[in-house]
Design goal:
Helix content: 10-25%
Number of strands: 8
Order of helices and strands: EEEEHEEEE
Strand content: 35-45%
Structural class: mainly beta
Mean pLDDT: 92
Distance between the termini: 26 Å
Largest sheet: 5 strands, antiparallel
Strand order of the largest sheet: 1-2-3-4-8
Radius of gyration: 12 Å
Low-confidence stretches: none
Length: 97
């Protein structure tokens, strides 16, 4: 099982934009974007892999965003700590935290 406490640096880059937006790239795909206003966009870029989910979970944990992701049946699922679940069959979802 991949560690989820800190964003891994293997094939992964983390950027802070001038407007305060934090971004996580896996290879050349922006998989996590968090604005200064806490709007989160998750995007698998068509790669719904264990590594993609691990990096999304690492960002959520490191930045204390209050959710985790999983994949089942080819669908990205976002589970919030309050029990809510959002499914994103397209592999892309935007929400407020």
């Amino acid at each position: 099982m991949a560690q989820t406490q800190k964003i891994s640096r293997n094939n992964t880059a983390v950027y802070m934009q001038d407007d305060g937006t934090r971004e996580v790239y896996l290879h050349n795909t922006r998989i996590v974007s968090v604005t200064a206003g806490n709007e989160v966009t998750l995007n698998t870029g068509g790669w719904l892999t264990a590594t993609t989910c691990a990096r999304m979970n690492q960002a959520a944990n490191e930045w204390r965003l209050g959710f985790s992701v999983s994949r089942a049946g080819g669908v990205l699922s976002v589970r919030f700590h309050d029990g809510r679940i959002i499914e994103a069959p397209s592999g892309r979802v935007t929400f407020q935290v």
